[in-house]
Amino acid sequence: MRNVLSRLGRYKKDTFKCIAMSALEVVFEILLPFMTSLIIDRGLEKGDMPAVYRYGIIMVVFAFLSLLSGAAAGRYAAKASSGFAANLRQSIYGNIQDFSFSNIDKFSVPGLVTRMTTDVTNIQNAFMMVIRQAVRAPLTLFFSYVMCIIISVKLSLTFLIAMVFLIIVLGSIMVVTMKIFSKVFKRYDDLNASVQENVRAIRVVKSFVREDYEKKKFSKASDNIYRLFVKAEGLLALNNPAMMTAVFFCIIMVSWLGASQIVSGSLTTGELTSLFSYIMSLLMSLMILSMIVVMITMSLASVKRIEEVLNEKSDLQEPADPVYEVANGSIDFDHVSFAYKTGTGKNVLSDIDIHIKSGETIGIIGATGSGKSSLINLISRLYDASEGTVKVGGTDVRKYDMKSLRNQVAVVLQKNTLFSGTILDNLRWGNEDATEEECRNACKAAAADDFIQSFPQKYETVIERGGVNVSGGQKQRLCIARALLKKPKILILDDSTSAVDTSTDARIRSSFKSYIPGTTKIIIAQRISSVEDADRILVLEDGRMDAFDTHENLLKTNDIYRGIYESQIGGNGDFDHKEQEV
């Protein structure tokens, strides 16, 4: 809770102003029934009209001041709660940006979205109610009870019995519903996951005619939330009967005992009238407190989920005295092993020992799940090696400032992401200061300029969200161009030409020699034709280095590589070579 509240920041002043205005509002409201009793006892019963006018004017002034205080409190409450929610979302988002991949793996994307939307909104509403009503209601309760004691100690005991009864009932309800609401927000994650997955893969859903299946899956997730909410709301519905029991008890007891005290002369008519007003204030305060209990019950589950994200610290820490300059593009894996979950005993990579010179072109071949992507993730320190050392430019990657290291390592993935904006906007992710000419040169090197020129708006063409208005191959080439603009010391292509034809793939690789001659290039591919011209090729098998040699030597000495080559080339399975034979 403290971690969440620390995000209040500069809105603390508005919070305290709201509390002060709420307290002032309560003071003026409490005085109104007292003024009513004075009008009755000192004015109406004695026939003193000047007294009626005098106390009436004072009553109107108090009511007006209460109204102004309430309006100011509401304004400050809205400002503080909205600002608090904005700061909270900013903190969550900022913390996520600092996460390593292993931290992100602990949370699902729908779970993070729910935390930043539904959970933050719950906390915002609860916070507004706390600084407004949770201040106003207890103060009203306290001052009303004080006034009741001043009027009649005997009658005030009636309210004490009602309060103890409500505290027991509401406390029991809160304990049970708290557990249910914790489950509810987890079900929200499942619901968001269903929606996101369906929308993202809507083309696949429609092509396989799976709309009915997706509807059933969504209905199941929605029904889970429905049943939990019905259970929770069913328990919370007991608040109202408990409240009404307390209300009727107080009214009956005050009417009965108050009437007897008026007859005996120990209580005036004005005091009994004001007492009924204080009864309603007391009971309304208790009712508001019960609503606050419900809101806090829901928000505590949200607070716990948000604290999980805020308390999560990146597994990758910056060194105390970081190195900011990457000397060159050399890469050394010194007996490196890696597991995504330490302590499981299952390594994704085991004893990788390879040394790559700066400027070399290295190919990586291996079956799905052999550890190719895991290997390259260690170079830019997206993960840390479990054992051994990864060096770039002769320096352990753990000694680098992470931003400096990653600025010199450009990675192009198979599943690339383009952002909303123009083509130029997307390209300048690689270099925000790049001129249009530099962007066009990078696109020529990535074989992207031709199709860009065919667009009516050319480089000002707007890319829609997710890049849905360009093909997979076009998207890959734009992402390669974006990476080339960084002019990195190391360029990694993680099967990033899989969606382009083999002749275009060859053109892109050929252009690297002139565009980035001194850059170390690592090419992960499924096609032999994409890596056969590399200086050396790494063959991975089940996370282990099976061979590391030139294309010619691997054909002679490595069974795995030769088998892949024969299945693709010997069996006329590769488009490039088949075309060359014609």
Strands, helices and their partners?
Elements: H1 2-5, H2 12-44, H3 49-97, H4 101-104, H5 109-151, H6 153-200, H7 202-207, H8 211-236, H9 239-264, H10 269-310, E1 331-338, E2 349-356, E3 361-366, H11 372-379, E4 387-392, E5 395-396, H12 402-407, E6 409-412, E7 421-422, H13 423-427, H14 436-445, H15 449-453, E8 462-463, H16 472-484, E9 490-494, H17 502-515, E10 520-524, E11 536-541, E12 544-549, H18 551-557, H19 559-570, H20 575-581
Parallel strand pairs: 3-10, 3-11, 6-9, 9-10
Antiparallel strand pairs: 1-2, 1-4, 4-5, 7-8, 11-12
Structure description:
Strand 4 (387-392) and strand 5 form a beta hairpin. It contains 20 helices and twelve strands. The protein is elongated, with a radius of gyration of 35 Å. It has 582 residues and is an alpha/beta fold. Helix 2 packs antiparallel against helix 3 (49-97) and helix 6 runs antiparallel to helix 8. The model is unreliable at 571-582 (pLDDT under 50). The protein has helices spanning 2-5, 12-44, 49-97, 101-104, 109-151, 153-200, 202-207, 211-236, 239-264, 269-310, 372-379, 402-407, 423-427, 436-445, 449-453, 472-484, 502-515, 551-557, 559-570, 575-581, and strands spanning 331-338, 349-356, 361-366, 387-392, 395-396, 409-412, 421-422, 462-463, 490-494, 520-524, 536-541, 544-549. Helix content is 63%, strand content 10%. The protein starts with a helix and ends with a helix. The strands form three sheets. The protein has a six-stranded mixed beta sheet with strand order 6-9-10-3-11-12, sandwiched between helices.
